[in-house]
Every structure is written in C-alpha cells, then in structure tokens.
C-alpha cells in the first residue's frame, strides 16, 4: 500500500510517500525559516499563507522523487493536530479534498503519535513497550508507548518546552532564530560547569518538566553582566544552560523507563538533534542496560514520513476520517 502523508502543524510544509508501513520513498520538508526569521519567532498568519503556497509543490516533489503519481496512492494521511490551527487546516483540508477526489481513504494523525513511532522508520525498530521523550519547540513530554496505537503521557512540561527555552535564550543573547542550533554550537566551546543554573526536579519522582525558572535565571545572569558593563560570557552561558536542560531531560527519562520497567528508550522532536542530549542519554542508557533509539535528524524534526507510518496503523484500525472531521490545536494524547 502506497501512502501519501502531509504534515503542516507548525512552520514546515512536509509531504512523504511511504510504502506501508515504513519504507520511505520520499520525504520532503519545506522550511519557512526565511519567512519567520526577521520576526524572531513564528508568525501564525504568515505560516498559514506560506503553507498554502508550498503545499502543492511539496506534494508534487514527493511524488516525483518516489516515481509515483496520484493514481498510485491508496491512502492519504495528514496531521490533524496539535499545532497552529491555521497551519494545520491547510494540510488537513488538502489531504481530505485529495482523498475525496481520488476516492481513497484518508486518516487524521496526531502529530505526537508520529514522533512516538518515528524510531520505527529506522532499523532496528524499538521493541514495545518503550519510553519516549518528545522534545521540541512546542512539546516536552514523556510517554509510555505500548504498541502502534496505544500511548500514555506520563510527564509533560508545566510551562515552556525545552526547545522554546533554547529559542528564548538565543534571542536574549542575540543569536537569531531558531535558537537551539546556535546555542548548542556555542555551548561546544563553553564550560558547562561555569555557571550553576537551577534544575527543576519538581516533586520527588515527578516526570513533569519546568524550564521557566531556568530561563529567568539565564535572563538575570545576563542582565547582571550587562548592568556591570562586563562582557557576557556567551559560550559559558550557552554550555551551562544546555547542561541544565539536558541533565533534567536525561534523568527524568531514565526515571520513567525504570518506573515502567522498560528496556528501550526513544528520542524524538527537533531538540533530539542536540548533540549533548544525544550523547548524555546514550551514556546513561548504556550504563542502565537500556537500548536507545534515536531516529535520523530528518525523522526527529517535523516530517511527514512519521505521519504516514502512524497513519497506516490508524487505517488498520479502520479509523478513517469523515469529510467534516476538523483539525484540533491541543493533543488529546498530551
Ligand atoms: O520539532 P521541531 O523541528 O519543530 C517544532 O517544535 O516546531 O523543533 C524545533 C525546535 C526549536 O525550538 C529549535 O530551537 C530546537 O528544536 N532545536 C534544537 C536543536 N536543533 C533544533 N535545540 C537544541 N539543540 C539543537 N541542536
């Protein structure tokens, strides 16, 4: 079965052609970086307009790269939520309309489900059940993944997402947008022990996260340097901030795996590209006898291949969309 999948939940327009369940034949991602960079963050109205312009060219490119035509497609899958509703509606409505015209089934996929299953696009695939950490610009959550359609959120951020914290620190330091890669690059030459930023462990055994206190602490530290007219030690601040985020993410993920007696951990979301996070998590998983699966970066960030995979398993359960089904901004999974 050949699946065409579409993802437009935030600021990337993505389309993939996948031979069910996991053979990726094309995975196209069109970034809106240039549209939003001048504003230092995503402007929802501009995001929807850019999706409208990109959707057809991106789908066409995916089909061409896969050597397929619309007549070969047997299932359409699209992200139904969560995300920016204006953005979601572009991909979701496009997918439903296409399926209607071609008289083929269409499934709506929760974006989080895509991230939770993304490691199945690589090999070896993780064995169920496993612990998943999804860490991006909009989410920082821990899940128990029991099978292809059974997920339970066991921890989430109470305020900022980790990627959002990276972006805000980058903005404060004048490093541009999106900030994660820039902060991470500078952190590479800084000392992670130079500044002792707070770690929010929250209640004993809590699997929730909080990054707003850390962010405020970085703001106060930078302001102190600026008020005293002392040069801000940008590299050390980046390294110490990154270390504080990574330590909490890693330790809570290990706690989740231990609590649930899981043998495998998967990492997903844009922040999964962070080298320190990957390295520290790999080290701690190894010393605790856990198998870590980190998808290729292109499957960690927002992409449509993971939507095709998750969509296929919804199709297998007959969870087919009706023409008047709507997109949603908040995930029922989270
Ligand atoms: O999943 P994703 O591509 O999309 C959204 O959530 O929209 O994640 C993007 C987030 C941004 O906040 C970005 O700053 C962060 O992931 N990010 C990183 C790195 N690469 C991307 N954060 C830390 N280190 C990185 N290397």
In terms of topology, how is this protein built?
Layout: E1 2-7, E2 12-19, E3 23-31, H1 33-36, H2 44-66, E4 75-81, H3 85-102, E5 106-110, H4 111-117, E6 130-135, E7 140-145, E8 151-156, H5 162-172, H6 179-187, H7 212-227, H8 234-259, E9 264-268, H9 275-287, E10 291-293, H10 297-300, H11 305-316
Helix pairs in contact: 2-3, 4-11, 5-6, 5-7, 6-8, 7-8, 8-9
Protein architecture, described:
- This protein has 11 helices and 10 strands.
- With 334 residues, it is α/β, with parallel strands linked by helices.
- It is globular.
- It starts with a strand and ends in an 18-residue tail after the last helix.
- 50% of the residues are buried.
- 5'-O-[(R)-(carboxyoxy)(hydroxy)phosphoryl]adenosine binds next to α5 and α6.
Distance between the termini: 30 Å
Shape: globular
Structural class: alpha/beta
Compute the CA-based radius of gyration.
20 Å
Number of domains: 2
Please name the fourth-level CATH homologous superfamily of the largest domain: ATPase, nucleotide binding domain
CATH topology of the largest domain: Nucleotidyltransferase, domain 5
Into which percentage range does the β-strand content fall? 15-25%
Average pLDDT, rounded to a whole number, is: 96
Q: Uncertain regions: pLDDT < 50 for 5+ in a row?
A: none
> Biggest sheet, in brief?
5 strands, mixed
CATH architecture of the largest domain: 2-Layer Sandwich
With strands numbered from the N-terminus, the spatial order across the biggest sheet is 3-2-1-4-5
Strand count: 10
Share of residues in helices? 40-55%
Order of helices and strands: EEEHHEHEHEEEHHHHEHEHH
Q: What is the CATH level 1 assignment of the largest domain?
A: Alpha Beta
Number of helices: 11
